[in-house]
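Example S7 (structure tokens).
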């Protein structure tokens, strides 16, 4: 009997929640959509109108049309310096473009996959008419857009968008190709990712190709200057051909970690950047760099002039120079902890290699009340050291091509062993020091 008294209220509460939550969810979604409609129209002149509503008590099932009446407010927000001619071109391309938004998910606070679907509904009349009257490539492009070639889907996490995924693009025209695979944005993990971005453009005498593989970008902005950014790119490849001249650029394994935050109204920035290999080739030469590492820290930067410089499009050249003076006079500390390259090799017209290059530097500027910044302060507070290592044969090859460097190299070159030489230069207290000797 006692068990019945406990179970019946619990069952009643569960039934009440089953029927109450969908009502609350419906009210909240309607409120969010109405607010978004007002924001889009007020800020950008974009209309968001309901196309269909097939909701049931337990499920959302709606369609909305987003109509970009004019592209001008969006364009000026992205770039306030656009000319009237640029705005006219953008207006002809984008204005009156319609986008279809489908919403389908159950009315419970769960994670719903593919709950929102966004695709192009209608191109504007000018672009449609232009493509219809052109060649087969244009008609193929029009068909690509009309058949939802560009399409996004989004996951819902308690009425907020979680992960946004783009449908793979494989567009193949006679003069161009575009491939985008596995592109998604995770708003919860603050991660942007794609496995392939490839674009190729060809004509009778030239061709261009850009390929980016496996990009992962994590970006977290907790406050205006409290920012973290991690970036990884496996490969970037650029291919250029003009008549018989060919150039290729390859970059392998790019890694970056950036961090900025405020400490008592002073900005601190740290950045670590690495590239495993860069390769450049043309018909006659090749250039290869391995293991590039950059690590630096800047701290104690005055925040007020930095904010002014961020909004520098509102400043006259004179005010911009005054703001830079204020930033430098505010003082700062800069540490180039490490800039190093393990190997540089060239073949072709020039043939030489350096096995190791390492650079360290620091600047310590104290706060200065002067109305204008004195560049001499940088010279006095600047320290730098450079280490370079290679073979004697490489130095001999370099001097054959650039003999004027002989007198400079003789001052700084030191033997490490029978076949290897090195340069170890430091600048400190207004003196240039090589291997412990003041040379300047």
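Recovered sequence:
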């Amino acid at each position: 009997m006692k068990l019945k008294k406990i179970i019946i209220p619990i069952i009643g509460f569960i039934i009440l929640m089953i029927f109450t939550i969908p009502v609350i969810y419906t009210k909240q979604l309607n409120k969010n959509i109405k607010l978004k409609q007002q924001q889009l129209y007020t800020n950008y002149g974009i209309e968001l109108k309901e196309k269909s509503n097939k909701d049931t008590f337990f499920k959302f099932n709606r369609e909305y049309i987003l109509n970009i009446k004019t592209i001008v407010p969006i364009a000026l927000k992205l770039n306030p310096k656009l000319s009237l001619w640029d705005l006219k071109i953008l207006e002809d391309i984008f204005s009156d473009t319609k986008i279809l938004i489908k919403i389908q998910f159950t009315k419970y606070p769960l994670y719903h996959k593919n709950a929102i679907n966004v695709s192009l509904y209608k191109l504007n009349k000018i672009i449609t008419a232009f493509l219809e009257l052109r060649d087969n490539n244009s008609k193929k492009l029009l068909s690509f857009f009309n058949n939802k070639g560009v399409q996004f889907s989004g996951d819902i996490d308690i009425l907020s968008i979680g992960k946004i995924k783009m449908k793979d693009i494989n567009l193949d025209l006679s003069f161009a190709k575009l491939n985008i695979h596995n592109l998604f944005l995770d708003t919860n993990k603050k991660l942007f990712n794609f496995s392939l971005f490839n674009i190729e453009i060809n004509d009778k005498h030239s061709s261009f190709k850009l390929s980016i593989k496996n990009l992962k970008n994590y970006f977290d902005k907790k406050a205006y200057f409290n920012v973290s950014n991690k970036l990884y790119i496996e490969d970037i490849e650029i291919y250029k051909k003009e008549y018989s001249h060919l150039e290729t650029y390859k970059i392998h394994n790019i890694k970056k970690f950036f961090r900025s935050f405020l400490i008592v109204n002073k900005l601190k920035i740290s950045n670590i950047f690495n590239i495993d290999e860069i390769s450049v080739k043309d018909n006659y030469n090749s250039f290869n760099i391995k293991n590039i590492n950059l690590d630096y820290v800047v701290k104690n930067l005055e925040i007020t002039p930095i904010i002014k410089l961020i909004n520098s499009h509102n400043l006259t050249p004179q005010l911009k120079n005054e703001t830079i003076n204020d930033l430098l006079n505010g003082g700062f500390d800069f540490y180039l902890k490490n800039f190093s390259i393990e190997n540089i090799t060239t073949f072709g017209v020039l043939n030489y290699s350096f096995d190791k290059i390492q650079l360290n530097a620091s600047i310590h500027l104290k706060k200065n009340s002067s109305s204008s910044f004195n560049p001499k302060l940088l010279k006095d507070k600047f320290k730098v050291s450079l280490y370079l290592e290679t073979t004697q044969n490489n130095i001999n090859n370099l001097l054959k091509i650039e003999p004027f460097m002989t007198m400079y190299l003789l001052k700084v070159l030191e033997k490490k062993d029978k076949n290897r030489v090195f340069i170890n230069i430091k600048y400190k207290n207004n003196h240039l020091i090589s291997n412990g000797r003041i040379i300047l």
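Notes on this example. The longest strand covers residues 245-263.
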